[in-house]
Amino acid sequence: MDGITSLSGATQDTNNAVTSSVSKTLGKDDFMKLFLTSLQYQDPSSPLDTNEMMSQMAQLSLMEQVANMTTAVDKLSEQAQNSALQSAVNFIGKDIKGVSLNGEVISGQVESVQQTTNGVMLKLKEQDSLVPLTYVTEIN
């Protein structure tokens, strides 16, 4: 029975991966192609309901607006990261006090700046710890 359960789980994982992959690749052009194809092959005796058509057009418009907002947010995020990195470069050679990632208060002269998955980090001379730019408490 364990073999059946694990096979079922593997099949579900594969289905989820395929569904996720398909939903990520369909865009507004694909939606429009499907919509126009459905109009082309619709049954003349039961044409598409006007309300349904308007609903589909509203969905297309909403999808396009969400895509545009996602692009704008990505650009803003990138600009914020670049701005933080540029600000951090100005700290090189200055004495600071801040809180490291492990929670200890450390101070020293900024030796270098690093971009990590946790954000912009300041490396202090003779210190093993990094101080996140947002955790700087004092600049001398």
Automatic annotation (TrEMBL):
GO terms for molecular function: nucleic acid binding. Residues 103-140 form the S1 motif domain. Pfam families: FlgD (PF03963). Belongs to the FlgD family. Signal peptide: none annotated. One of its GO terms (biological process) is bacterial-type flagellum organization. NCBIfam families: PRK11911.1. It comes from Listeria seeligeri. This is Flagellar basal body rod modification protein. The keyword Flavoprotein does not apply. The keyword tRNA processing does not apply. InterPro entries: FlgD, S1_domain. Keywords: Bacterial flagellum biogenesis, Cell projection, Cilium, Flagellum. It comes from the Bacteria. Residues 1-21 are annotated as: Disordered.
